[in-house]
Design goal:
The chain is of the alpha+beta class. It has two domains: 5-81, Phosphorylase Kinase, domain 1 (2-Layer Sandwich); 82-220, ATP-grasp fold, B domain (D-amino Acid Aminotransferase, Chain A, domain 1), CATH 3.30.470.20. Helices cover 32% and strands 34% of the residues. Bound molecules: cytidine-5'-monophosphate (C5P).
């Protein structure tokens, strides 16, 4: 059997139900738009566990998502969606491409969160775009964009508090959204939420606990992901 879709870190498989897909987390890690590649044992499992717990938490807080249930260590069941070609990034502190673009030092705290949009395109390297680009490229309507911005800020509030309970600072993260296949008028949160797509710094030591450990060759990549999982488990259970 062939997957319906294979991305850099996940595969999507059909199920007996045409409106339900199986999402498989791979052990592959990529950075710098696929230029840097590696495999980490247990990465798929760790990201699946973390993402499942966070999706459960977001659902409990009333955020509509694609998530249905965890199947096993590396697979979840999700509602089929048509992914929007706009990625939404929220930043609370300066890091990554923000610093590169502006020359600002990493760690500057923003007075309010920054929401930015990029085109979901490996070929183009997910370029940063503004509302006018998105309108003219017909990637989303103004109404959709307003919804994405509001949803992303709500997720930022919920997750900022949640990760603080985990002793982690939510520096920035990327979200993807999709239209439900069985009701395209509804846009829900899709993809995964894990240290692959969130910058998380230890509140006490400032240590990076996310994919920057891989991007910057800091070592102990999976040790950091495992530590994030342990803290997330405690925060959810406690
Ligand atoms: O690289 P940049 O600083 O723009 O990334 C902002 C946040 O979005 C980071 O947490 C990063 O992990 C995430 N991101 C992602 N996938 C992308 C681009 C960014 O998960 N294609």
């Amino acid at each position: 059997m062939e997957p319906l879709y294979e991305g850099k870190a996940k595969r999507l498989w059909a199920t007996e139900d045409p409106e339900v897909l199986r999402m498989e987390f791979k052990n592959d890690a990529t950075a710098f738009n696929g230029e840097k590649k590696a495999q980490f044992e247990n990465k798929g499992r760790l990201n699946n566990e973390i993402s499942t717990l966070i999706y459960g938490y977001l659902e409990k807080e009333g955020v509509p998502t694609h998530f249905i249930r965890q199947i096993d260590a590396t697979n979840v069941e999700v509602h089929k969606v048509e992914i929007l070609m706009v990625e939404v990034i929220v930043r609370n502190l300066a890091a990554g491409s923000f610093c590169k673009r502006t020359g600002v030092e990493e760690g500057m705290v923003f007075s309010q969160p920054i929401v930015e949009f990029s085109i979901k395109s490996d070929e183009l390297g997910d370029p940063l775009v503004n509302d006018d680009y998105i309108r003219e490229l017909k990637l989303a309507t103004a109404e959709d964009l307003a919804f994405l911005r509001k949803s992303a800020l709500r997720v930022n509030e919920i997750l900022g508090g949640f990760f603080a309970e985990c002793g982690l600072k939510l520096v920035d993260f990327k979200l993807e959204f999709g239209r439900l296949a069985n009701d395209p008028s509804k846009i829900v949160l899709a993809d995964e939420i894990s240290p692959d797509g969130c910058r998380l710094w230890d509140l006490k030591s400032g240590e990076k606990m996310d994919k920057d450990r891989f991007r910057r060759d800091l070592g102990d990549v999976m040790e950091a992901y495992a530590e994030v999982l342990e803290r997330v488990k405690l925060a959810v259970g406690g």
